[in-house]
């Protein structure tokens, strides 16, 4: 890395600086299978230009290239895009659009551990690509809402059919959205917050 | 038309740790996460980092860049993105800077069994303004 002699110092634009009073950040994850609209959603609600954090890993024994009798190793870079919303002078919220393949999640230490909750995006043309992700969230106890990203050529199922197909408890919200629109994506996040709020109420009663 | 059917899963008491060994594929990290004392850095993607000082003359170019961009609080994820450094490399670098008192870390808000209602209300309020 060579920053010397360069007039472009990396970092946020001045309008993207968080106030000094910001004491803590919270995060939400946006998950779902391949191509369901995770990146689009992060981009449409973020107040900053979406950014990408990368992780590099080695993968052994793939594409078996043992011409030299040695084990082949390829380095793969996995990217995760994220955005940010300022909540108040004290709190900032980060949204992470996870990679579609679950086996890459462990690369980011703590990605799911502290997340307040998750948005599971589904595409009705390929509902099953988001099944694995939902199972993982259930196993880890991460509360989630389901957002149906409506593609024009996707089948439209009645919400109760979807609930049955996704095997979701009656209280888990299912909402339709168009992740290309900020207001629509915002409403999905609002649904998640209301759901978490209701969860807080019911859990504090027991 | 009938949609495909999923089966709900139950929470597992001990979430599986480390890389899943799916398909018998051997997946490992290229970078080993360890701080100066071999401890795993307690840094989250959204831990906020704030500079405590101007870059000392002994600072490396990376440290100087971090100190410049962290004059205002910035998450580890953002620093990693702006410097184009893998997250795990970033946490090692920041762990060293924390140990040297060059930066301060502000711990993230994490999920609790009973969500914090006042926080959620603040978030809803913030989202409404969006
Ligand atoms: N018609 C329509 N197209 C959409 C919508 N949302 C996303 N798309 C398109 O669908 C494609 C996939 O969207 P992405 O946001 O890249 O999906 P992703 O989940 O990030 O995909 P991966 O990261 O590859 O798993 C893009 O070409 C989007 O423009 C939508 O609501 N309606
Ligand atoms: Mg994407």
TrEMBL record, chain A:
UniProt keywords, alphabetically: ATP-binding, GTP-binding, Hydrolase, Nucleotide-binding
SUPFAM superfamilies: P-loop containing nucleoside triphosphate hydrolases (SSF52540)
Protein's organism: Streptomyces aurantiogriseus
Lineage top rank: taxon: Bacteria
Protein name: ATP-binding protein
Gene3D superfamilies on file: P-loop containing nucleotide triphosphate hydrolases (3.40.50.300)
GO function term, MF aspect, one: GTP binding
Family, as annotated: Belongs to the GPN-loop GTPase family.
UniProtKB/TrEMBL annotation, chain B:
Species name: Streptomyces aurantiogriseus
UniProt lineage: Bacteria, Bacillati, Actinomycetota, Actinomycetes, Kitasatosporales
Segments of this protein annotated with the region Disordered: 1-26
Pfam families listed in its UniProt record: DUF742 (PF05331)
Protein name (record): DUF742 domain-containing protein
PANTHER family the UniProt entry points to: DUF742 DOMAIN-CONTAINING PROTEIN
């Amino acid at each position: 890395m060579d920053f010397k002699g360069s007039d472009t110092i990396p970092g946020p634009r001045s309008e993207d600086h968080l106030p000094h009073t910001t004491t803590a950040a919270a995060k939400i994850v946006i998950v779902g299978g391949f191509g369901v609209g995770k990146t689009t959603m992060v981009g449409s609600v973020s107040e900053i230009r979406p950014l990408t954090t990368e992780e590099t890993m080695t993968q052994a024994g793939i594409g078996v290239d043992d011409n030299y009798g040695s084990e082949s190793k390829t380095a793969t870079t996995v990217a995760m895009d994220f955005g940010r919303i300022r909540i108040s002078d004290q709190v900032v919220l980060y949204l992470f659009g996870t990679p579609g393949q679950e086996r890459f999640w462990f690369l980011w230490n703590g990605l799911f551990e502290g997340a307040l909750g998750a948005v599971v995006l589904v595409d009705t043309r390929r509902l099953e690509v988001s099944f694995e992700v939902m199972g993982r969230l259930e196993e880890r106890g991460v509360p989630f809402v389901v957002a149906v990203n409506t593609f024009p050529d996707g089948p439209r199922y009645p919400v109760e059919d979807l609930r049955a197909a996704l095997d979701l408890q009656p209280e888990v919200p299912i909402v339709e959205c168009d992740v290309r629109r900020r207001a629509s994506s915002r409403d999905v996040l609002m649904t998640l917050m209301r759901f978490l709020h209701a969860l807080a109420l019911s859990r504090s009663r027991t | 038309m009938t949609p495909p059917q999923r089966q709900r899963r139950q929470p597992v008491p001990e979430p599986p740790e480390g890389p899943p060994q799916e398909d018998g594929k051997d997946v490992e990290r290229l970078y080993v996460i360890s701080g100066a004392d071999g401890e795993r850095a307690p840094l989250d993607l959204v831990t906020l980092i704030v500079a405590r000082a101007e870059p000392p003359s002994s600072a490396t170019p990376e440290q100087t860049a971090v100190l410049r961009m962290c004059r205002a609080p910035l998450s580890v994820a953002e620093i990693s993105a702006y410097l184009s450094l893998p997250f795990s490399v970033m946490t090692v670098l920041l762990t060293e800077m924390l140990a040297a008192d060059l930066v301060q870390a502000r711990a993230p808000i994490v999920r609790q069994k009973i969500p914090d209602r006042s926080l959620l209300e603040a978030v809803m309020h913030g989202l409404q303004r969006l």
